[in-house]
C-alpha cells in the first residue's frame, strides 16, 4: 500500500477530528501532523482521548467529524483492512492455539504469499526481535516480554508504513519495561517505520519519543520534543502532569517581577499584567542551594521543613515566613546535604534562576 508523498508533506495528518459517544465528546477538534519515520507518543491520563485517537487513525473507531490522511491519501472512511498499519495491543492479542512462527506469519498467510517467502520473512523478524529458537513454542510457554516481541514481529510482518502501539508495555514488570522500551526504540530507528505509541507513562514518552502529544479531556494541550515538553510546558496541566513541579500562589508586581510570599522574584512576566494573580511554577531540581549568597538574584532564606531520601538525591521541603506559609520542594544531592548539614528546622539559603520560573494564570494548576 506504499504511496509516494510529496517533499515536505507530513506522512500522517489528522484534521479537526471530533469523536462523540452519545453526548460525550472523546475527541474535540484534534489536528496533528506526523513526519515519515517519526516516533510520536500520545501521552495523557486515563480517559484523555489518546487511545480513541489511535483507534480513529487505525479505522477501529470512525470519527464523527474530520479527516485522516496517510501518505497523501484520505483514509478517513476506509475499514482497517484497507489501511496501511500494523498494531500491537496492550493485551498482545496473540492466538493461543498457534505457535510463535504461525502467529507472526498470520498476516502474510492471509495475503497468500508463497510459503518459502513467508518462512524467510518470519525467521528474519524473529531474529530482529531476539526470538530465534522460539519458533515452535506457544504463547502460554513465553514470558510477557517474549509475548510482546511476538506481537511486535507480527505487526511488522507485512512491512506496514505505520506502526501503532497501544500501551504495549503497561502489562510488564518494571525491569522488563525499561529493557523493552530501549529495544523498541532501537528497532524503530533501524527500520525507519513511522510509529505512534499511546502511553500514560511519562517516563516512557520522555525516553522513547521524537515528539510527544500531551492530551487532556479530548484536546491537545501541547506538542513538542521531550525537552520542550519538560522544560517549557505550555499549560499548567502539562507542567503538573510531566515530572514533578512546584506550584505556589503569587502576583505580578511589575514588568519582570513577581511576588511569592514576602519574596520578590525576577522572571518573565510578558503575558501578564501588573497586579494579576498567578501560579508560580518551578521544578524541584531548579532550586539552587550550592554557593548561594544572600544578595544573589532570586535568593532568599528559608527553613528545612522535611527531608525525603531518594537514593542519589534528597527531596527537601523548604518553608518559612519568607514564603508566606507555602512550601516548595527542592531536589538536592546527598553530597550537598552533607556539606550543608541539612536537618529539619535548619536554615537554608536558596536561589531560583529567573529563566527557570514559569507563570500560569491563577487557578489553572
Instruction: Specify the structural class.
Output: alpha+beta
Give the averaged pLDDT, no decimals.
93
List the helices and strands in order. Answer: EEEHEEEHHHEHEHEEHHEEEEEEEHEE
Note poorly predicted spans. none
What gyration radius follows from the Cα positions, in whole Å? 25 Å
Largest sheet: 6 strands, mixed
* Ends apart, CA distance between termini: 45 Å
Strand line-up in the sheet with most strands: 6-7-8-3-9-10
- Overall, the morphology is elongated
Description:
This protein is 25% helix and 32% strand. It is an alpha+beta fold. The strands form four sheets. A six-stranded mixed sheet has the order 6-7-8-3-9-10, with helices on both faces. It has a five-stranded antiparallel sheet with strand order 13-12-11-14-19. The protein has a four-stranded antiparallel sheet with strand order 2-1-4-5, covered by helices on one side. Strand 9 (211-216) and strand 10 (219-224) form a beta hairpin. It is elongated, with a radius of gyration of 25 Å. The two termini are 45 Å apart.
